[in-house]
Amino acid sequence: MENIIQFVYIASAALFILSLKWMSEIKTSRWGNWAGTAGMALAIVATLLKPEIHGYLWIAIGIVIGASIGTPMAMLMPMTAVPQRTALSHAFGALAAGIVGSTEYFLHGTNLSMPQLIVLCIEVLLGFLTFTGSLLAFGKLQEIIPTRPILYPGRNLVSLSVFAFSLFLIAYLVIKGGSHPFLFGLIVCLSLLFGILLVLPIGGADMPTVISILNAYAGLSSSFMGFLLNNKLLIIAGALDGSSGLILSIQMCKAMNRSFTNVLFGGVGQVLEVADPSRDGKIVKSLSPKEASILFEAAKKVVIVPGYGMAAAQAQHVVKELTDVLENRNIEVKFAIHPVAGRMPGHMNVLLAEADVPYDKLVEMEEINPLFPETDIVLVVGANDITNPAARKNPGSPLYGMPILDVDKAKQILFIKRSMSTGFAGIDNDLFYSPKTIMLFGDAKKVLNELLISINSN
Ligand code: NAP
């Protein structure tokens, strides 16, 4: 039996690796999802067949409780709430790792060798800090608690002291050996507290990056659990989870031109500058959707740039309807996808897929940028920072260095947004005052609907 279990574990590990590979491309992402699910199902079945398992009653109770929380979460939470859903999943996964580690300590703590105790303590530390950190991230994203960074003087010192004290206690426990339930309980409490302190000073808009970092911690914790339980699949799955979480966080920070430390300690997102249209005598041109619809009569190539405002307005379906109408008029339509458009990686891809926009119309930033000079109209739907030319031109701007969509190079730019307000970064966008730009003020869904009706009646 053990040989069969090990064989199934190898198959699961291969499926997990394939899953990550396939998920990295839109075309194969559904396959990736299936491969991951199949890998996990095989891993669970193989583990349940292990001879060490003597009774299934508690396992069945656990499965029923887990499924009754997970199923409604997957079915009822909307696509826009995926970051919150991910945060909750991490919280539960990390709690499981923390509980398994604690149980091992209380059952076999006195028999564990020094390296085993080190691994156990690190697993517990990472598991419990990820649990509270992820719960707090969920609360911020769901706006159950204030999304702004909660800052107080000396916060970094307090957080680092709590972390250092936990490490000190771990070192003491490992060197002393034997059973120390009180000290162990204190390590658990400090880990829970550290998770809260870690996430409290970070703004709601940075939560997707934080969740990705917490994902890496949860993966590492599971990997350590694998060493402890001598389960090779857990080691592999945890390492894959940990490294992919870390790579994703690095990519997100790069695409935002932010450093890791800036996200974790920066307190970004507190004060947002509101753009002033009268500033320096700059002129803003705006039209009604009906007036703007005439511009499409002469257009041959249109690029749509979706951003956070499209998600907020849930305008993806009307964007798809507009695409169909334009294509029926022999206008070529493409979508320009920026890696950090919206508030989570792949945010725009998910929403546009939900609206059945074919994936071959979604063009990544590097490929679409050379096409802007020959584009007649760029229709920016609730995007802002990802189009801001200050990222290319203004070394003093916090956005400087962030790769952007070169929307300013198109022949005509239409911006759909409700006001002159700034986006996530809180920076004014010079493109609003460009002679090539026309603002269409209003909620994205409403403006697009009016635009659609007007184009249809022209
Ligand atoms: P953005 O810069 O935040 O701009 C979104 C714009 O949408 C706002 O200026 C807002 O202007 C408009 N808007 C909001 N609700 C709207 C509605 N109902 N109808 C029409 N417009 C609406 O968004 P972005 O251009 O997508 O850029 C993403 C930003 O988020 C970047 O700075 C990125 O670094 C950051 N970020 C991304 C991720 C990620 O993983 N994707 C993670 C963390 C941070 P009005 O208020 O005037 O309408």
Automatic annotation (TrEMBL):
Q: Which reaction does it catalyse?
A: NAD(+) + NADPH + H(+)(in) = NADH + NADP(+) + H(+)(out)
Ribosomal protein among keywords: no
Q: Which InterPro entries match?
A: DHS-like_NAD/FAD-binding_dom, NADH_DH_b, PNTB-like
Question: Transmembrane segments in this chain: where?
Answer: 6-24, 31-49, 55-76, 88-108, 114-136, 157-175, 181-202, 233-250
An annotated GO cellular component: plasma membrane
EC number(s) stated in the UniProt entry for this protein = 7.1.1.1
What is this entry's stated membrane topology? Multi-pass membrane protein
Sorted UniProt keywords: Cell inner membrane, Cell membrane, Membrane, NAD, NADP, Oxidoreductase, Translocase, Transmembrane, Transmembrane helix
Its subcellular locations are:
Cell inner membrane
Check the record and name the Pfam families matching this protein. Answer: PNTB
Q: Which residues form the NADP transhydrogenase beta-like domain?
A: 6-452
Recorded GO molecular functions are: NADP binding; oxidoreductase activity; proton-translocating NAD(P)+ transhydrogenase activity
What is known about what this protein does?
Answer: The transhydrogenation between NADH and NADP is coupled to respiration and ATP hydrolysis and functions as a proton pump across the membrane.
Regarding protein family, the annotation reads: Belongs to the PNT beta subunit family.
Instruction: Write the protein's name.
Output: NAD(P) transhydrogenase subunit beta
Q: Which organism is it from?
A: Methylacidiphilum kamchatkense Kam1
The UniProt gene name for this protein comes to pntB
